[in-house]
């Protein structure tokens, strides 16, 4: 049974968590986390490459020890060392790390002081007010933990879109190869491009008598069957992702795809609209009385209501019907509109590839320009460029551009916005760059007033071009910072300074609603990969997806501009 890169990466994440819970040293733990990231950045299945003789030892930052484990996982699906380690840590303890306020040290402290072994143990201990008495915990932290436990219980398990995507595409290929299958589409929140996906909703058009149900149940990734039948089935994949399948005749494919793409609120509006015209709409088609007047394509469904095509990313009942009726639907930005990337790291800080390596990879990804924006050095950051190191990199980039073909590197930095809103590097060096990307990496919990003042001061700096991942949230891991966003958006629109839509799958920040609100305040954006390795440029598609959910058009995103125009745009951000 072939193992996905994602499964190997997940095993390494678990390895890192368990090592951390056993109090192992930071370097070993980081090696596993880094390897997991590298594995996720590979586009081709490692198990296949290894079977073909590829040596995982040659992956960036992967030594002999980890390479051995990758080989073992890729060939046997198991890892003996991981199984040994599992036996030494209570199985439920790792769950505690899902809580935003709990890292390995606090999890160990809870285990040692109160013998807590699971989220359930923790819930009981909080109810009995025992957690507050653990040294360095206290009432405030106990209350925060109670809150995040409640959110976690409500949320249930959702998957990053990019994880769901790997499984969706493989499953789509599997079903499409089946004789008798005419069309396959993955609908639901996946198709609407939501940042996380609860389950996969698959719509298949097939000739009568095609046994799609068996094909799904016998799929190599399927772990368990929940529902089985000729037109509908549900299974759970090995990674825990549920798949709901609907099989329909070809004449109903568009109606079924529309119905299962959702969202539910959008569908309710659609049905109401249909009812007002005396029509009935369901997953089989659009009906006037008993006559079917549409349903083979999505377009045919909408046309019966006199509506133009509405892109799946817009189907959230957020004004798309009003816009469609008024002929004012946006011309959404598409992946091909992006001409360059404005946020990337190299091995000079925490990236895994050299400047030239990143440039090559960006060119291969059809980008015409790439901004190198390594981290600034600030208190506590291990890697990070000081002014002298940044000056040296400026020289390297000039030298690269003097001989490069097909891509231009822009000189940038990802400079820390300090607690008081000042930037972590002096003006003298910032002024020599093509762009300055500022970001919050610390002091996430300041009060709304202080956080707002901090961002306003950063926007006011005079050299700030782009505010990177503005809300600093990490999906399911860290809440957004608390801030008076309308005020920040107004300031960014006036200045001018651009807000980033960061395409890292755990960031996707600004999110859809915030980006749309910012856009209506006049803000313009960049969509950036925040690449840390050569495989990361493909992440840009996720940033575009988020931008589409925010109703953005190409003209609102600066890295759709040709280089010469972009340079003028960026120069206007330097006010000093
Ligand atoms: P998820 O899976 O939680 O990320 O979100 P969705 O949107 O994929 O939701 P899901 O999987 O429960 O259902 C897929 C689509 O099927 C949903 O967007 C609309 C349609 N649908 C499901 N149940 C109902 C329902 O009871 N009424 C209507 N109108 N539509 C439904
Ligand atoms: Ca779904
Ligand atoms: Ca579903």
Description:
The chain is of the alpha/beta class and 576 residues long. It folds into four domains: 5-155, DNA polymerase beta, N-terminal domain-like (DNA polymerase, domain 1), CATH 1.10.150; 157-248, Beta Polymerase, domain 2, CATH 3.30.460.10; 264-329, 2-Layer Sandwich (Beta Polymerase, domain 3); 335-571, TIM Barrel, CATH 3.20.20. The protein has 23 helices and 18 strands. The protein has a five-stranded mixed sheet, with helices on both faces. Strands 14-15-16-17-18 form a five-stranded parallel sheet, with helices on one face. Strands 8-9-10 form a three-stranded antiparallel sheet. Strand 16 (466-467), helix 20 and strand 17 form a beta-alpha-beta unit. Helix 1 packs antiparallel against helix 2 (26-40), helix 7 crosses helix 8 and helix 20 packs across helix 21 (512-520). The protein is globular, with a radius of gyration of 25 Å. The N and C termini lie far apart (60 Å). The mean pLDDT is 94. Bound molecules: 2'-deoxyguanosine-5'-triphosphate and calcium ion (2 copies). One calcium ion binds next to helix 10.
Describe the secondary-structure layout.
Elements: H1 5-21, H2 26-40, H3 46-51, H4 64-76, H5 80-86, H6 104-114, H7 119-127, H8 138-155, E1 159-160, H9 161-176, E2 181-186, H10 188-192, E3 196-197, E4 200-206, H11 212-217, E5 222-227, E6 232-237, E7 242-248, H12 253-261, H13 264-276, E8 280-282, E9 285-288, E10 291-294, H14 298-304, H15 320-325, E11 340-341, H16 355-364, E12 369-372, H17 387-403, E13 408-411, E14 414-416, H18 427-430, E15 437-439, H19 448-459, E16 466-467, H20 485-494, E17 498-502, H21 512-520, E18 525-528, H22 540-549, H23 563-571
Parallel strand pairs: 4-7, 11-12, 12-13, 14-15, 15-16, 16-17, 17-18
Antiparallel strand pairs: 1-3, 2-4, 5-6, 6-7, 8-9, 9-10
Helix pairs in contact: 1-2, 7-8, 12-14, 19-20, 20-21, 21-22
One calcium ion is lined by residues 188, 199, 201, 244.
């Amino acid at each position: 049974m072939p193992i996905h890169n994602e499964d190997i990466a997940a095993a390494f994440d678990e390895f890192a968590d368990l090592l951390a819970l056993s109090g192992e040293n930071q370097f070993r733990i980081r090696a596993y986390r880094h390897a997991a990231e590298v594995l996720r950045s590979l586009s081709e299945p490692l198990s296949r490459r290894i079977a073909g003789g590829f040596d995982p030892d040659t992956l960036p930052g992967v030594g002999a020890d980890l390479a051995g484990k990758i080989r073992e996982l890729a060939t046997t699906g198991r890892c003996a060392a991981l199984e040994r380690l599992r036996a030494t840590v209570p199985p439920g303890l790792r769950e505690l790390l899902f809580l935003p306020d709990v890292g390995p040290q606090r999890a160990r402290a809870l285990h040692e002081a109160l013998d807590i072994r699971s989220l359930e143990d923790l819930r009981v201990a909080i109810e009995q007010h025992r957690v507050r008495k653990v040294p360095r915990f206290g009432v405030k932290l106990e209350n925060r933990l109670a809150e995040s436990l409640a959110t976690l219980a409500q949320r249930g398990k959702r998957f990053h879109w990019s994880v769901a995507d790997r499984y969706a595409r493989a499953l789509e290929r599997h079903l499409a190869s089946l004789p008798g299958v005419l069309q396959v589409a993955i609908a639901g929140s996946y198709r609407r491009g939501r940042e996380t996906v609860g389950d996969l909703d698959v719509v298949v058009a097939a000739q009568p008598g095609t046994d799609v149900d068996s094909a799904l149940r016998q799929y190599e990734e399927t772990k368990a069957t929940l529902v089985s039948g000729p037109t509908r089935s549900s299974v759970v994949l090995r990674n825990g992702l549920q798949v709901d399948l609907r099989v329909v005749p070809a004449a109903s494919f568009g109606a079924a795809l529309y119905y299962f793409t959702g969202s539910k609120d959008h569908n309710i509006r659609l049905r109401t609209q249909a009812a007002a015209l005396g029509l009935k709409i369901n997953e089989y088609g659009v009906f006037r009385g008993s006559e079917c007047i549409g349903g083979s394509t999505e377009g045919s469904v909408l046309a019966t209501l006199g509506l133009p095509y509405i892109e799946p990313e817009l189907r959230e009942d957020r004004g798309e019907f009003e816009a469609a009726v008024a002929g004012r639907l946006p011309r959404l930005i598409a992946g091909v509109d992006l001409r360059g990337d404005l946020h990337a790291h190299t091995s000079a800080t925490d990236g895994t590839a050299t400047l030239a390596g990143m440039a090559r990879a960006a060119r291969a990804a059809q980008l015409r320009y790439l901004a190198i924006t390594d981290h600034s050095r600030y208190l506590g950051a291990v890697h990070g460029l000081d002014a002298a190191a940044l000056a040296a990199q400026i020289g390297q980039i000039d030298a690269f551009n003097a001989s490069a073909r097909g891509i231009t590197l822009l000189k940038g930095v990802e400079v820390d916005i300090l607690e008081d809103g000042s930037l972590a590097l002096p003006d003298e060096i910032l002024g020599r760059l093509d762009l300055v990307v500022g970001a919050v990496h610390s002091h996430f919990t300041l009060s709304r007033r202080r956080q707002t003042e901090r961002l306003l001061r950063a926007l006011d700096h005079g050299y700030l071009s782009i505010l990177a991942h503005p809300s600093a949230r990490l999906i399911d891991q860290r809440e957004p910072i608390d801030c008076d966003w309308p005020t920040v958006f107004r300031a960014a629109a006036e200045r001018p300074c651009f807000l980033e839509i960061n395409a890292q799958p755990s960031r996707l920040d600004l999110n859809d609603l915030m980006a749309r609100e910012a856009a209506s305040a006049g803000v313009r954006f960049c969509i950036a990969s925040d690449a840390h390795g050569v495989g990361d440029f493909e992440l840009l598609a996720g940033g575009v997806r988020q931008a589409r959910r925010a109703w953005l058009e190409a003209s609102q995103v600066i890295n759709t501009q040709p280089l010469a125009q972009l340079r003028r745009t960026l120069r206007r951000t330097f006010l000093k």
